[in-house]
Structures are given as C-alpha cells and as structure tokens.
C-alpha cells in the first residue's frame, strides 16, 4: 500500500509540473518589443518582374523599389473601409469597421492592410509575367499607373475598372469587385491588338514588410497557411526565412503545384489575408522571403495564357482580407466553392473536438444572445453527453468514501506487513464491488474537453470582446477584477496583466473557481497518506492562482463544470444512504485514524479500589 501511495504522490507531483509547464507555454513572460525599423519604413516594396524568356518564368523575382505617389479610389462596404492605389492597382489600405483595437468605443478600428511607406507595410498586388514576344515593360506590374473609369468608390455591387495600354497593341483591363463581407474579386483581361502572338502568366501576391507583432502563444498559429489539393500546411515566419534557396531566383522560396483546389495567405490571431485562385484549375503557390528587404511573400501563379492576334484572355482571382469569422468563412466554403476554407481557423490537434464544440457554442450564442450564458449551456450539454460514464465513476467514488474507515482499520491491523495490507484491500474492493480506478474517468474525459474549449475560446474571434455580465466585458481576456482594489471599490487600477502582482491579486472568477474545486474535493475520498492529503488539500487554491490569468470564458466553464459535478456527486452519495457533511468532510482521514487506534488499543486497566488494610 505504501508503494502505491508513493506512486500516487509522484503522479500528483507530475500532474502539478505539467500544469506549470502548460502555464508557461500559454502565458510566457513578455518579450521586449521587436525592432520595427524594417525596409518598409524606407519606401520599399515587393515588385514582380522577370527576365525575358521564350516562355513565362516560373518565379517572380522580388526586389525593392521606391513607390511614387498615386491617386486612390475609396473602399466602402458594411465591414470595410480604406482605399486602393492606382499605382499598381494594389489593395493596400484596409480597416475593419466592426472591430476595434480595444474595448473602448473610441478605440481605433483594426487595420488589416497598410501601404508602403508605413511601418510593417502589408498589401496585395496583381499582374502578368511576360513570356513569348514580350518584355518586362510590356506587362503591368506593381508600379503600373492605371487609369480608373468614372467610379471613384468601390462598394458591394459597384465594381471599379482600371485600364492600361502598353503602347505596343496590348490593352489590359482590371475589374475589382468586393462583397458585403471581406472578399475581393480581381478579374484581369488582356486584349491582343498587336500583330503577333504573345504568352503571359497572371499572378497575385500578398506581401508583408518586416516581422509583424506576434502573440507568441503556443495555441495560436501565426504565419503562412495554405491548402494544396486537400492538404493543409502551416508555416511559421521563422521557418519561411529558412526555406531552401531557389536556384533560379536566388531567394529562400518554396513552390507547390496544385491540380484541383487550394489557397495561400497569411494568418494572424484573428485576421487573415488569402489569395484564392480559380478552383478546379491548376496553379502554383509560392512562399518566399526576401532577406535584403525583409519581405515575406505569398504568391499564386495561374496557368500561362497564349494569346493570338485579335483575341482576348481573362483571368480571375479572389482575395480575402478581414476577420476570421466562423459563419463568414464557412459560407465561403459551402456557398462560394472554396474547399477547406474553414480550416484557415487554427482548430489545433483536437480539431475533431474543437470544430463541433464551437459549432454548438455558436448556435447556443445565437439562441441565447449572450456568449457567457452560451458557455454555461454548453457545459450542461457536455456534462449530459458524458453522464453515463460519470455516473459509474461517481458511484465508485461514493463507495470508496464509505470504505475509508475500513481501509484505515486494515492499515492499522496490517502494520508494516505491506503484502498483507495489499491482499486485504484487494479483497475488500472485491467484496464491496468497488473499482478504485473508476474515479479517474471524469478527469480523463474532462482534460481533452478543457483544452479543446480553451483553444476555441482563445482562437475564435467570436469570443473576442464578447461581454458576459457586469465587469466581465471580454470573455477572451482574464477577469479584470482584483483584490488589489477591492474589486473596483478603491480608486486605483488593478495590477497590469502579466505582472507578479496580477498573479497574486486575483479576481472574482478565480476565487469562485477555487471554492468550487474545494467543495468538489470534499466529496472525494481523502488520501490516507498525510503527505498526499496535504498536497490535494492545497490544489484548489494553487489552481485558483494559476488559472487567474486564463480567459474568463474558460474559467466560467470550469466553475460551471465543478458546480454540476458537485451536485451530481452529492445526489449520488445521498442516493446511497450517505448524507454528505461538506464542512466535516463526512469522516476525515485523521478522525478515521484516531478511531482505528482507539479500537485497536487494549482497554485501560481498572483502577484498584481504595480500602482499609
């Protein structure tokens, strides 16, 4: 039995260490801000050019050039605002009307794209690679000065058309349309009015100057995300810089060929830019890094177009730039023919759990109208699904609780004979039909659900700035209340998130979490070993401080889960004839040991009667 106790102690210590490790992975110490003095601040940009060859080149050489000022057209949709530049016909200025940087209504809108010349420039450009019969100057590129039609504003249902002629008989038209969400459609048309046949290759580029500000948290992928013929690939920024150098371009690059479907782009925590070529047609996706200018590029090169004199060719490509809203992205996948687009949201290793969990949570939120209440309802739903297994576990734990006095008595009788104690305990379990391992089932079930829900709450934008009640205005952020200012009663702010004081002065939700864990623990069999009992007694309060920095939505889930578990165990123990005394812990291990010793001790000898000699 002592050996088993030691194993349990080691297991408890290992589990505590795992929790600590997970904590530091999810909440690493803040890093010093990265140097933002990138080439983007010196007016450099990515330009697709190519040397003249018999056929269009297979790669777009990237170099840095200055960007002249150019007229702009306004972008105005229900969700987007910004402008596009007539220099290159690029989409390089875009903000999200429905999202702000902070909770305050006066906070600036989230900006997704920014033009060259600003810090961390981020934009898209489209063009043609020259092939047979053409030189680089004969096709439009990132610096081409386009002429716009009469329209001055790009909005849903009102596309704009750009025009450029190369002076050698080729006329290029570019129609840019946008829907009511976050999808642009760029349709390029070339008319061959020259006397010779030519060949061209259409392309699209998304370029980022410098390394963006990263969350640096394990559960969030930030970098390149692409799907090629059904295979999803995620690449971190640091891995992009380590790509093998392409022999033709002399740059770190990776070219992937798709035959049926796919897309490629950059993903942040909540925002994304993605190039989506025509599905069902072959194309090449290119991932590239330009070390001299510190530019990251995601490219799509569509099939070569051969154009006889007097003919016209058209190529189309979609460009997503906006928020990773689940319903919007799912609609693009289901209704607009972009296979696997929902996987642009980072569902993680437990995608088979995170996807359905969020689908149910999203439905409940739409039904209830409050994300916090939706999390509580989801917890009830998940507890209902695992109720049969949990019931067996709780029954076993209740019986184990009833056996504690007998187990203490066995330990006293066996003394130092461990083999005898083990045999008698196994016989006791057999006689009482109790499985001591059954109590682990709720934990084994809860752990993957907990991490899946953590992933859902932290990754999905629907939880960002989602209010609950009162002071809880963002379920994706930790509880902002604190003992430091008596939960807002004192006129000073709570400690800054990430500091030691914030870990010590925790809020209301973590305190409720600790209390519910303590109450639940009171219904479980207390370890007979005093060291183990001490460790388990401190666990609720250790978790209370450790989880104080977790997203408040996750803490709401855990509080609800603990409360439901407590009620279930209480009712099951009641049904088995035990009325739980929570504060007395029914029969504590210490009281059981004292009682066992009293029973085992011989009765005191009777005092001699006093009498006369």
Characterise this structure.
The protein is of the alpha+beta class. 34% of the residues lie in helices and 24% in strands. It has 14 helices and 22 strands. The protein has helices at residues 2-26, 237-240, 326-335, 351-368, 371-385, 387-402, 404-414, 418-432, 441-459, 500-504, 508-522, 530-546, 552-575, 589-600; strands at residues 46-49, 61-64, 72-76, 80-85, 90-100, 109-113, 122-130, 147-148, 153-154, 160-165, 170-178, 183-192, 198-209, 223-228, 231-236, 253-258, 262-267, 271-277, 283-290, 295-301, 305-307, 312-323. The strands form four sheets. A nine-stranded antiparallel β-sheet has the order 8-10-11-12-22-18-17-14-15. Strands 7, 13, 16, 19, 20 and 21 form a six-stranded antiparallel β-sheet that branches. A hairpin with a 4-residue loop joins β11 and β12 (183-192). The longest helix is centred in the first third of the chain and has 25 residues, at 2-26. Mean pLDDT is 79; it is low at 1-14, 20-64 and 585-590.
Q: Roughly what fraction of the amino acids lie in strands?
A: 15-25%
Q: Enumerate how many helices there are, as a single number.
A: 14
Summarize the biggest pleated sheet. Answer: 9 strands, antiparallel
Total count of strands: 22
Tell me, rounded to a whole number, the average pLDDT.
79
Query: Can you name the CATH architecture of the largest domain?
Result: Distorted Sandwich
The dominant shape is elongated
CATH fold-type name of the largest domain: Beta-galactosidase, Chain A, domain 5
Assign a percent range to the helix content: 25-40%
